[in-house]
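R.M. (postdoc): so does anyone remember the format we settled on? I'll just put the structure tokens first.
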């Protein structure tokens, strides 16, 4: 469903009429995303929306299944009915509603080539783009949140906080983990908890990279849990709204275990001794076993006691 309330839509329409604009074109495709498409129609992406000054809406899409499920418009136009030509579908929709002579407003993000095509198709039409026009009205409408929008934001924040609370245990459970491990975990948790996905590329940086504002790459194969300050910067999309948090953390140093009085396993009898030699201990040579070294040193101690006259 669309997010814009009737009150906010009425303010936008009143502005169009005051400026004598007959329709405004909103486009969202891979070449340029526009959050106003979802705000005004409910369609999340990949479509043209015509918002007419009388309040009616026409959505031109290629994925009719998604549009029928999610959009809330007066008319759906399948671009496949026009040989998958968005230009042809736009020209047909404008001509059917407004004829040959009208004022069409495009947003600053609209492609110049499409504007030229529309102007060629409608020589009598006036195509405008104004700094204080529809784009500015959309920003004003989205800036003040309704009670329903605030509740949606709270839901997204609650899920985000839930993920933050799990980071410590995840890192502790995987000694030697990489930056990528945490990034993948965060994005998996988002979707597992019901989010649409990340609101931007997840950043994870160990102590060597945490001083960067935006790390490149966003997460690497570098070990994350090195002693020092690390961070992650992530967010999720929740019902069309984004969260964005930066979480810094410090990996604790791994301290050596307290001395137990026992020899380390690497130099216990029966294991190869790694040292290559030691002054005063002729038995400590590479390749000698520790029990051979112990016998040699024991013999030296016995000999020293006999020479000193001690028993």
């Amino acid at each position: 469903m669309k997010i814009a309330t009737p009150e906010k839509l009425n303010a936008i329409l009143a502005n169009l009429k005051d400026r004598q604009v007959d329709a405004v074109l909103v486009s969202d495709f891979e070449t340029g995303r526009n959050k106003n498409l979802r705000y005004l129609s409910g369609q999340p992406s990949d479509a043209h929306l015509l918002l007419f000054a009388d309040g009616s809406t026409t959505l031109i899409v290629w994925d009719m299944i998604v549009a029928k499920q999610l959009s809330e418009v007066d008319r759906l136009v399948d671009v496949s009915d026009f040989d998958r030509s968005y230009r042809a579908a736009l020209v047909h929709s404008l001509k059917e509603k407004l004829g040959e002579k009208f004022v069409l407003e495009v947003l600053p993000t609209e492609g110049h080539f499409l504007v030229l095509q529309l102007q060629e198709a409608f020589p009598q039409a006036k195509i405008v783009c104004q700094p204080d026009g529809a784009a500015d009205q959309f920003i004003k409408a989205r800036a003040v949140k309704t009670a329903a929008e605030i509740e949606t934001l709270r839901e997204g924040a609650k899920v985000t906080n839930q993920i933050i609370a799990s980071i410590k245990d995840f890192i502790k459970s995987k000694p030697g983990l990489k930056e990528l491990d945490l990034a993948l975990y965060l994005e998996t948790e988002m979707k597992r908890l019901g989010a649409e996905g990340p609101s931007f590329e997840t950043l994870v940086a160990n102590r060597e990279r945490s001083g960067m504002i935006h790390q490149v790459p966003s997460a690497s194969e570098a070990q994350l849990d090195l002693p020092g300050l690390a961070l992650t910067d992530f967010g999720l999309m929740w019902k069309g709204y984004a969260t964005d948090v930066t979480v810094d953390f410090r990996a604790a140093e791994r301290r050596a275990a307290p001395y137990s009085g026992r020899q380390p396993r690497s130099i216990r009898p029966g294991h190869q001794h790694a040292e290559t030699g030691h002054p005063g201990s002729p038995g400590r040579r590479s390749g000698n076993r520790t029990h051979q070294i112990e016998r040699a040193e024991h013999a030296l101690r016995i000999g020293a006691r006999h020479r000193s006259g001690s028993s």
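R.M.: ...and that's the designed sequence above, right after the tokens. Also worth knowing: Confidence is low (pLDDT under 50) at residues 261-284. The first strand starts at residue 23 and ends at 28.
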